Amino acid sequence: MTLKRSLVTIDVTADAFAEVSLAMAAAERLSADGLAVRVVSMPCMEWFAEASQAYRDEVLPPAVHARVAIEAARSCSWWRWVGLDGEVVGIDDFVESGSGAEIIAEWAPTQP
To answer: GO terms for biological process (predicted)?
Structure first.
């Protein structure tokens, strides 16, 4: 995804501690470039899906199309939440093995 340097809100969504720390590091870098960034933690997609539409719209405003989800596993379940204009950073192959910290160090776009 290409982002122009303008005032845009980017939602970075993550579901666990490792991903949230990466999201926070990414948000700091993007904020330093003048972008408005929010980090949203979604520990349970099922609970979020069962919440009211009003609540989901408050957490993930429909007007925000620049969304990035970070998942230290398969990315497929996140596309529902990032939408057509969003991106998902995940691991969709079986070539990696190791501890969570080792895998993140190997593939992470930023390090906390």
So the answer is: pentose-phosphate shunt
